[in-house]
Amino acid sequence: MTLSTGDRIYLDHAATTPLDPDVRRAMVEALGGPFGNPSSVHATGRRARAALDDARRGVAHALGAQAHEVVFTSGGTEANNLAIAGSAGHGSRGHVAVGAIEHHAVLRTAWALRDRGHAVSEIPVDGHGCVTPDALAAQLRPDTALVSIALANNEIGTVQDIPALARVAHDAGALFHTDAVQAVGQLDINVDRLGVDLLSLSGHKIHGPKGIGALYVRDGVDLEPLAWGGAQEMGRRAGTEDVPGAVGLAHAVTAACATWRQQGVRLAALSGALIDAILAAAPHARLTGHPTSRLPSIASFAFADVDAEPLLINLDLEGIDASSGAACEAGSIEPSHVIEALGLPPAFRRGPLRLSLGRDTTRDQVLRAAKLVARHANRLHAAPEPVAAHPGAR
Fold first, then answer.
1. How far apart (Å, rounded) are the C-alpha atoms in residues 104 and 93?
2. Domains of the chain: which residue ranges?
3. Domain boundaries 5-18+260-382, corresponding CATH code
4. Could you tell me which of 89, 201, 283, 315 has the fewest CB atoms within 10 Å of its CB?
5. What would the pLDDT profile of 338-373 be if each residue is shown by its tens digit?
6. What distance in Å separates the CA atoms of residue 336 and residue 54, rounded to the nearest whole number?
7. Is 328 a catalytic residue?
8. Strand partners, 354
9. What does the buried/exposed string (b/e) look like for 53-64 if buried means 16 or more CB atoms within 10 Å of the residue's CB?
10. Where does the pLDDT of residue 393 fall: very low under 50, low under 70, confident under 90, or very high at 90 and above?
11. Are 301 and 274 in contact (CB under 8 A)?
């Protein structure tokens, strides 16, 4: 039975989150406030600049950074692109090393650099998706300019030991970037405790607006801009800034970082109940990612001899919003590069399922979702059959 919109259970927070009412109010106030160009020197422009500066200080405070180290971007993708392409190839260093299970905003930027003549290495992971210091060290070279490894993986939730990995990179003379898009609001993102030189974040993953993100750039790091024009964002990103977006991002980041410990405890309890229920009811299911060092919001599974598409269609018809992995890869029939990198047996590579929880998720919702996931996964495993086209398909 297809449920009404109000009855749906949203378990795709890793793809995007609803806009927080307080963030919306702050943005509406900014939209009706200083409309001037922040680069203008007159009073109207200075009012816009003041709002932008306040937002920059808010993001910097959440990161434990200085305001001038924060560059506003259009989101996590641009922040990753700017970090990697902007810092590669300075001086005599032209080699870039990235984790094998990075988001495609990282991987495809590295591949583009490779096509332009840069040397690029992909750092392998173990069966839980972890990059070990030894695995990283084996990929480093005298000309390594940058290492990029996400703080937490967007598909399986595995959390990396970023301080240890950053030390290995720094000992080799390389910069270290981390994609923290999924981690904000669930993990400590203090840039000094992480030991990173560059860090990416995005608004819409933390109940902020879409189309806005930020890149932390440690003081002294030389970064080549990707967009040329004016001298906005300390000369690192040309173009008139999105003041309401920056205001919304600052409010969202501040709120997320103020409650990350409490949210982590609550989400870990919910995801633990979800994992236990699915594994108990679906004997052919495997939890993917690290069993303990993982984001508390993400529970990811692989089901033997089950295709992801019919499973997701059935869950959608039951009123469960879920994903087979990265939302950016929706519609792709190729196996997830993350699942491939884990080295799972072939039977488990067809049916990845990511359930990602949020601040409004309840225990009743996760237990109901677990029952439906197990029911449909078991049925598809026992008797694979063609599935009717999704009602929204053409």
1. 23
2. 5-18+260-382, 21-258
3. 3.90.1150.10
4. 283
5. 999 999 999 999 879 999 999 999 999 999 999 999
6. 40
7. yes
8. 300, 323
9. eebbebbbbbbe
10. very low
11. no
